[in-house]
Specification:
By secondary structure, the chain is α/β, with parallel strands linked by helices. Helix content is about 40%, strand content about 10%. It has a five-stranded parallel sheet with strand order 1-4-7-10-13.
Length: about 325
């Protein structure tokens, strides 16, 4: 390395280290006081071992008795999760508790979360069943659990949602973004989702924080359940900004449903590419009028009569 380059690198290091002293939110240097994203992702993967025993093997445990292996996994999850929750609670600057109080609350939350896992699994079982019932390309529950991105995203959401409800900051969002990066499905951990939830294909789905989804709801790729406006920024954080989807609703690909006052009534069907900002009555079918297709060769012109203009055309894949 030449003297010029070596001195230049030293000057650059000095400039970067000096830049860390400005007291901004991006200048924190104590990594041990921040949640460990890698560890939270690893915990999420370990939780899949508990949710779906037999489907996701953890090579860390070489115990041949299945119950013993799962017991070790739960203990490991409890220990690691407790540490991350404690870090996250201290990370919340609005918290005014002693270290001892935070440690006790972290232990309570960890134990409460572990106790809720059987209930979480009950919901996930209905999601698997809804996928099997709703997708003609699905041949078995095993195939769905092992490979379907929708089930992966829903499972992570149901785990993150419980932690969110228990008041854990940061960690649920790290979990949801892990699922987002794996599947292209973005579900905020605050969203309330009922049983028998079916996501088909999934890529590009966005479900906002204050969304409420009932039971037996089916959603296809590219759907947005979002806010009508975010101009108010943080002033809107305590308000319901995202829609309510009632039971037995189907939302086809590319549809956008926006607004906290927007309610999609029970049994409604929302067609592909629909843009909705007002409530829809129960059992209503919404569809976008078919576009006309034209080709540059006269012999290839597609006539309007080639398409049936009825409410059953929903751009389904």
């Amino acid at each position: 390395m030449s003297d010029i380059l070596g001195q230049g690198i030293q000057d650059a290091i000095h400039g970067i280290l000096s830049d860390y002293g400005k007291g901004r939110s991006i200048d924190k240097l104590d990594v041990f006081r921040q949640p460990d994203r890698h560890m939270v992702t690893e915990l999420t993967q370990k939780l899949f071992r508990i949710i779906f025993p037999g489907f996701f093997r953890d090579r860390s445990y070489r115990v041949y008795h299945v119950e013993n292996s799962l017991s070790l996994a739960v203990e490991d999850i409890g220990y690691l999760l407790n540490k991350q929750i404690a870090v996250a609670l201290r990370y919340n600057l609005q918290l005014d508790e002693s270290d001892e109080g935070i440690d006790e609350r972290s232990e309570y939350i960890t134990l409460e979360f572990l106790k809720r896992i059987p209930g979480i699994r009950e919901f996930i079982e209905t999601d698997v069943q809804a996928t099997l019932d709703g997708d003609p390309a699905a041949y078995s529950e095993d195939e769905i659990i092992s490979s379907y991105p929708g089930i992966h995203a829903i499972t992570v959401h149901r785990l993150a949602h419980e932690l969110h409800g228990l008041g854990v900051p940061v960690l649920p969002r790290i979990m949801s973004e892990y699922a987002h990066s794996r599947t292209g499905i973005d579900i905020h951990p605050g969203a309330n989702i009922g049983k028998f939830f079916f996501i088909d294909h999934g890529t590009g789905i966005v479900i906002g924080e204050t969304t409420t989804i009932g039971a037996h709801v089916k959603i296809y790729q590219g759907v947005t359940l979002g806010a009508l406006s975010t101009k108010g920024g943080r002033h809107l954080r305590s308000l319901k900004r995202h829609p309510t989807i009632e039971d037995h609703v189907t939302i086809y690909s590319g549809a956008s449903i926006l607004g906290g006052n927007t309610v999609i009534g029970k049994g409604a069907v929302i067609g592909g590419n629909a843009f909705i900002t007002k409530s829809v009555a129960p059992f209503t079918q919404i569809s976008v009028k078919n576009q006309e297709l034209h080709y540059d060769r006269k012999k290839n012109v597609v006539n309007k009569t080639d398409f049936e203009e009825d409410g059953a055309w929903f751009y389904m894949i």
